[in-house]
Amino acid sequence: MSWTRRPPLIVGVLVAAVGVALTTLLVYALKGIAPVLSLGVVYLLVVLVVATVWGAWLALATAVASALAFNFFHIPPTGRFTIATGENWVALAVFFLAAAGASSLAEIARKRALEADERRQEADLSAEMARLLLRGGRLEETLPSVGARLAHALGLASAAIELRAVDAGERSVVFALREGTRQIGTLVLPSGAREDVLRRVQVRIAPALEALLAAALERDALQAEVVETAALRRSDVIKTALLRSVSHDLRSPLTAIMTTAEALHSPSLTADERAELAASVTDEARRLSRLIDDLLDLSRLEADAAEPHPEWCSIEEVVRAAVDDLNLPADAFKIAIDAELPPVRADAAQLERAFANLLENAYRHSNGHPVSVRARDVGGRILLRFVDRGPGVPEAQRERIFEPFYRSGTAATGHRGSGLGLAIVRGFVEANGGKVWVESLPSQATSFVVELPVEP
Q1: Where in the cell is it found (predicted)?
Q2: CA-CA distance, 182 to 185, in Å (whole number)?
Q3: Residue 188: exposed, middle, or buried by beta-carbon count in 10 A (0-12, 13-18, 19+)?
Q4: Average pLDDT over residues 114-134
Q5: Is 378 helix (H, G, I), strand (E, B) or coil?
Q6: Which of 332, 328, 335 has its CA nearest to residue 369?
Q7: What is the value of pTM for the model shown?
């Protein structure tokens, strides 16, 4: 869409000159079928065309040229600018007045048509700007598109909308965009813009843009408020879940440690019983330590503070380090990793924490069967599978189990964890450019799949 422009003035002068000349020739051809004085009306066609396209002033000049040509070539005595009779004077005067009136009416009609066309195009431009500004998305990313659309509509080389005050420069003209008394932005146009374009922008386009920009800013503010409200609500949920976890999951090992420690003071205990109780204290302390580590890991992930420090590492070494960290029986896991598996560039400590949680979760649900760990290279990406022989995960829970504090187990199965491990797994895996999901067959097996890029 571009604003309607009249052709250059020199083109209008040429059209007027050629039109007068051709009309003069046409009058020669028509003399045999009509009186000469009545043929002057033919020149009005040229005057109307010029008035419609180039305006009244050139049309008046065309009317003068037409009157002179009509007088010189067709009104007796021909060949000179003299008029022999009063009748011819009246005819020429009537022709000139008719030409002047017709050109004025044509100019008025032209201006109204141009104004109507400009209003239509401005309405189309406003609708397009509204679509771009109010369709959603980041306002900072939308403004360049709005500026480009505005420049195209105005026939300008460029146009920019800034969400700040901008001073005019040697090569720019600025329009402050306000909401009431507050400036909300600036429309920047090139200094070479025509005066009529700048006037149109100031009178009609800038006010429409102000209203749309204010609405877009209000929408962004409301969206930010909604996001903040959702974040606060989620924070409250996490705090509530954290308090529940602290009150139960932390208290359980603490209670066991305190009870066992008090029992160790009994003088009737044998050496074997003391060793068994001491081992129980160690196990509960280790369990408590893992729970605290999980809480710290989750808090870092929730705060986006778990920035990975990637380095080249061996997947097999990371998996075996995770197994060693769990202090479980040696036959609890069957590890089958491709010998040709390439190293990955990732944070080894974060992957170890993720793998340890997957291994512990699989062991907890394996019903005494060894947990299978397999890894292979698939098209430049490492695919790891942690497979247990547990009861499986219902399809409705396969996404929810990765949410913080969500527990899929039941009291009947005895497999209720803290609800932190899988959330930490997803957080650390995704922080290193990977993905994790679960594949499960009811009452047969569950496979947690981790996909990692060789280099993120």
Answers
A1: Cell membrane; Membrane
A2: 9
A3: buried
A4: 78
A5: strand
A6: 332
A7: 0.47
